[in-house]
Amino acid sequence: MSSLIVVRAKGEDSEELVTMRADIFCLESARPRLGFVCRLKNALYTAISNLFLALLDHVKHHYKDWTFGREQNPYVGILHVRDSLIIPQDRKCLKKVWDRAVQFVEDNESRVRTELQRVAGADLRVWRWTQTRI
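^ that's the sequence the OP posted. Answer follows.
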């Protein structure tokens, strides 16, 4: 997975890789031939792509579980998928990535249908897997 990372976050010690946003001292390119803006765009597109694949997998497995009687409904709430894939601390900083991944699903993915369903008395946006063979 580290080979997909385009920009590395480093701490004050130039050899120290950090994961906490507050500890970042500088950013370093894994592909120095690209300009900084290109590297940031590549990192964003990689994050969107990875999140898209993860949420697609989540919706597909939810549908599969429903076909075997392990889930009550054939659809899954969009916010539930987000909450399953992104930890609470990262939701704010990954909001743009999440929104772009959701938009990509709605615009380009024919196997997933977006619907409005009443769940526990509230109207929620949900995803339903529509491909019959899994």
